[in-house]
Amino acid sequence: xxxxxxxxxxxxKIVVDAAAPHAQADFWAAALHYEVEDNSALxxxxxxxxxxxxxxxxxSHGRRAWRDLAAVxxxxxxxxxxxxxxxxxxxxxxxxPEAKTGxxxxxxxxxxxxxxxxxEVARLRALGASVQxxxxxxxxxxxxxxxxxxxxxxxx
Length: 156
Known about the structure:
- With 156 residues, this protein is α+β, with helices and mostly antiparallel strands.
- It contains 3 helices and 10 strands.
- The strands form 3 sheets. A 4-stranded mixed sheet has the order 1-6-5-2, with helices on one face. Strands 7-10-9-8 form a 4-stranded mixed sheet, covered by helices on one side. The protein has a two-stranded antiparallel ribbon with strand order 3-4.
- The chain is globular and about 60 Å long.
- It comes from Streptomyces salinarius.
């Protein structure tokens, strides 16, 4: 590596443990105006080859989906055609057996358009989020909310 070259940035996704991954994906797709990923072509191909059992899949949005995984992606980001997997901004919800027990160590901040925070909070409440508290500090104002499974996030 020369002094003028730098490594390529790493691609990442945020993974969220969930009791109901498809419900969480639906909530967050609506909350962020994202799209639920469609992995049905890959799933059907793998089922056809006998590579995965049907018990690992469910029907969601009228198509085959992974039973224990659901992801949402930004609608403008690229997609891997064969798998339907987003290659940009994504949230992946994975089923876990245990319930959430404490405060998140990582959370999302959602930024509303100028002067539209209260409207955005009302929209998110209608989708199933709950208001935990309103924060007013010298550095700014925001609303702490939780998604339907109790994961904290902030609306600025």
